[in-house]
Amino acid sequence: MQKIRWNFYITGGILILLGALTFFYPLEAIMTVGLFIGCGLVASGLNYFSGFYFFGLKRFIALGLLDFIAGVIMIAQPGISAFFMPYVIGLWFLLTGISRMCAAFWLGGAEVRGWWYMLIDGIALIIFAFAMFAAPLISSISLMMLLAGILIASGVLSIFEGRLVR
Question: How far is residue 130's CA from residue 159's CA, in Å, rounded to a whole number?
Fold first, then answer.
């Protein structure tokens, strides 16, 4: 059990350190997160392609291409991706929100219960997209401060978990 306790302590310390670095170096964190988002967009694009391949959903081709190309650009050009990240995330929110709304209306037409949950999700994503477009720098720094807080809180909780292991 002592080894597990130290695992929690070390994990907590690493998370607190990452949170502090993100807090004190938000621009560098934006670039790093840009690389991770680029990888995620590539994976998301491939996932959309699979949706087209397996289910024949043609609207997924455009989303897949957009995600894949944006992901490759963000990985290849981290400085540019840091600058454009709020726009890319905002565009992703916008297109995903539109896609969710279309799917919600389709589900509503098919009389599927709870279709309006997806409609609300789509509307919320579109609102967030326009908020990111309106204030891109504030959006980026806000994302980094949120990430820093989450990392620090997770690290502190991990240390508390380690203290509970006996």
Answer: 38
The number of C-alpha atoms within 13 Å of 25 and in the hemisphere containing its C-beta is: 10
Q: What are the tokens at 74?
A: 């963000």
Ramachandran area for residue 130 (φ above 0: left; ψ -120 to 50: alpha; else beta) = alpha
Other C-beta atoms closer than 10 Å to the C-beta of 37 total 21
Report the domain count for the chain. 1
Query: CB under 8 Å to 159, separation ≥6 — which residues?
Result: 8, 9, 12, 13, 16
Task: Say how far apart CA 24 and CA 27 lie, in whole Å.
Answer: 9
Structural domain harbouring 23? 2-164
What is the C-alpha separation between 128 and 136, in angstroms, rounded?
11
What is the per-residue pLDDT across 27-78, written as a single tens digit (0 to 9) for each?
888 888 878 878 888 998 888 888 777 777 777 788 888 889 988 988 898 7
- Distance from C-alpha of 98 to C-alpha of 89, rounded to nearest angstrom: 14
Position 4 confidence tier, pLDDT thresholds 50, 70, 90: confident
